[in-house]
Fold these 3 entries.
Entry 1:
Amino acid sequence: MFEFAWPAALLLLPLPWLLRWLLPAAERPARALQVAFLPRLRRLDSKQQVLVHTPRSAAPLILIWLLLVMACARPQLLGAPLPPLSSGRDMMLAIDLSASMDTRDLQLDGAASDRLSVVKHWLSELIGQRGGDRLGLILFGDKAYVQSPLTYDLDSVSTWLNETFIGLAGRDTAIGDAIGLAIKRLNAQPANSRVLLLVTDGANTAGTMSPIQAARIASDAHIRIFTVGVGAEGGGQSDLLSILEGDSDPANDLDEATLQEIAKLTGGDYFRVSDSAALQQMIERIEQLEPSQRADRASREAKPLYPWPLALALLLSTLWSSRPVRRRMHA
């Protein structure tokens, strides 16, 4: 597709005619010198006047001006759309799928709901606001697994999140391993900003790496970790299976001190989420601390064409200005 990159330059087209109309005519000094070949000089002067003022002789000048203005407007041919530049952040989401996430102590749309369903709901809202960023999804329980690598396809990340369920990765909580896996995924990416959002409702009860040790490694890798503690202050209804297996009260399992220390070591922040209002405040706070890099509008490969009219104008100017030389050579 053909277009002008600077179409406003075309407004310069009438400039010579405006200057000719607005500026006074140049005054010529009276001729008083009498020479023997004066008639010949008058004939030459007469020819020059004709060349300047007749439309036919002025056509090359008009064409040169049109070519110069066209080159200034930068004509170009647009090719196929180019892929967007990766100017956003790389953010991994680490979601706890342990048994305690089935505790029904939070509200969703005015009804009691389990913690995982509420987390899915507000994380889907957060994912929708991260246009231009690459997101990845880590699920952890007894071990940590990568459910989605870093991708610009935020709809797929949201779909994979909504398909998760309690116990998919085991019933315990390997917070340290989840952080370690996120470090491995983020550290391999040449991004300007690496972020981990860690969501859990318990304490580290599984895995081979301690959360504090993993946080120190993340700090050395320039990865900021935002930790989110989920659960109501006063406890709630845990499932019957957890009670029969002798699990402790889910309301008291949250290790806030460790989550706060992880955030402090990596330059992030800790959030305690116990209701929908706190969830909304957390989303707004994350947007303030780590604003997403919005994707630029689609661009196309542009092939510049301005050298052609510029070169043609230069050629015509050279030919037009060399006319007196050619006449003298033929005289």
Note: The first helix runs from residue 15 to 22.
Entry 2:
Amino acid sequence: MQNLHDFVVHQPDVSVLFPVQHSTAVERGARSSLTDVAIKNAKPREKSYRLYDTGGLYLELFPNGSKLWRWKYRFEGREKRLALGKYPEVGLKDARESRDDARKLLRTGVDPSAIKQRLGAAEQVEATSTFEAVANDWFERMMRDKAESHRVKVKARLEKDLLPWLGNKPVADITPRDILACLRRIEDRGAHDTAHRALQNCSAVLRHAVVEGKAKENPAVHLKGALPPARAGHFAAITEPKEVGPLLRTMEAVSATFPVKCALRLLPYLFCRPGELRTMRWSDVHLEEAEWRFVASKNGPSHIVPLPRQAVAILRELRPLTGRGEFVFPGRDDRTQPMSNATLNRALQRAGISTRDEQTGHGFRAMARTILHEGLGFSPYVIEHQLAHRVPDVLGGAYNRTRFLEDRKKMMQQWADYLDRLRDGVEPNVAAEPRLRIGPREGR
């Protein structure tokens, strides 16, 4: 950013043509020059007063203790004053240098006050042209109609992955290398999908800068192909048993409403899709039969989730609070609607769990699939049917809601008991866990 001194050094010295005209004895140096000691010892009075230096420079002291530098000069026959800053931020030496710079401008026939106004206006333009300023404007204009869950994710990427390093840079000065450095930091923590999304958001902000006339080009376009392909459909998930216990204990301690805490407790037990859980209806819950029957949101078939004892207990405890409504987990502001699709991931984030790199609500499905099969030895056919996945077999059947139902009931209870032991810090005896090794021809 330019200042008065930067402007002055580019001006020709024509002091011979424009000599300084002083109108008072003070400006002619009749008074002695100021000292640092005199300034420090000067105390505020009931009314403002001035301490004069030489060449029209003076320090004005106010009753509230403020001390402001001024320079008095004449331009085109009119007496004017130029503010030079606040003491002690601007010391005596700096004030004199600013006065001398202003006098050089005056000798060229330029009004120093006009130059300062121009520099101030340029500074304001520059302040609105930083990446952070443009990003905020883009977010308010272009994201206002997006789903709240999407807005939250985009805002988080901007604030955590881009603004700390690009925020103060003018958008016109940002280079592809600046952007790539941000993306490499994201990649270094293993969040490859986040790196791709951050690049998309950064590019959108810089396109907005071009449209608004604050940049000539979008440097993000030069990074096409700079990142390795991200894994499609990846949801962060913990799949190591030793890490599950600490995760569950952290989730237990989260600060949230009782319905949200209940939803967080159910999600690992049932490993359903978060969208299915948040839209759970009391009419679909059959506590006496320990079953939850509903239409799976993704594939459409009717689905049965056997409820382990722990899940039944949670739902019985919650029913007095939300049982009069349609939804087991109603919205906070509108109880006729289900809770927001961002609620569970936000609760995980409040607990200090990264939903980008550690665990998402959807990631409990990957956790269960991996540990049930690889760790506990359950049949993939039973697991996939519990996940409501279409898994064609040699008989041609894609999905049947009652298939392996008895085995799934046993598996769900064993899974809930296994999670409880991990949560409580009890080492599970994996060798003693019964296996359900069911092949493709053994459907029930």
Note: The first helix runs from residue 4 to 8.
Entry 3:
Amino acid sequence: MEYIGFSNYISIFQDSTFWLSFRNNILVVLASIFGQIPIGLALAILLNRKLKGAKFFRTIGFLPVVISTVVISITWRMIYNSEQGMLNNLLESVNLGFLAQNWLGNPDYAIYAILVTIIWQFVGLYFIIFLSALQTVPEELLEAAELDGANEWQKIFHITIPSIKNVILVAVILCISGSLKTFDLIYVMTSGGPAHSTEVMATYMYSATFEGLSYGYGSAISVLILIFSLILILITTKVLNAKKD
């Protein structure tokens, strides 16, 4: 064995594939925060009311969270199939066949196709979290606001959302930490391809460690994943706490 100091980290920062995987990870984080959180919150607000069949829709909304990631990956890979996939067939059926693509085989579209799957998979988790939080908002506040002439949008933005700000902060932190360790779904759907276009730091770490047998290099990538996660969580906490103050 030979001590090499920070050589692995220097190599990583000069590695274009690592920076591509880092960019893809940032896209996953942004898609999760601005996709999963707003959609989950909107669904929670909608289904927090006394609607017919609300319990059924709550169950359906949470279902993707409890389904195996491998099953989800294979299902969406079939949906995106360029020849027999449901998405391209749907586009053909509504005379939009010119939009049909090889969704997972085209480096320009593959990462965005996966982002849609990631958002769909975890919306239900945040939907349930927000639904539980909404049930703790005092009815007296909402009734008082209604008596003062507040409409539904005003009650949502001035009472409901401020009342569950701490829960939203926790959800954002969960979103960031979960996004930066995304691995299994991408590995099953594309294995980081084509041409590393869907590579994220976790899949790149795995391929460097177990396929390239560069254990030190893979360990260095793991350390950077931890550091980037902590930095993003600290920044998010500071920003949201500043807005709360």
Note: The chain has twelve helices and no strands.
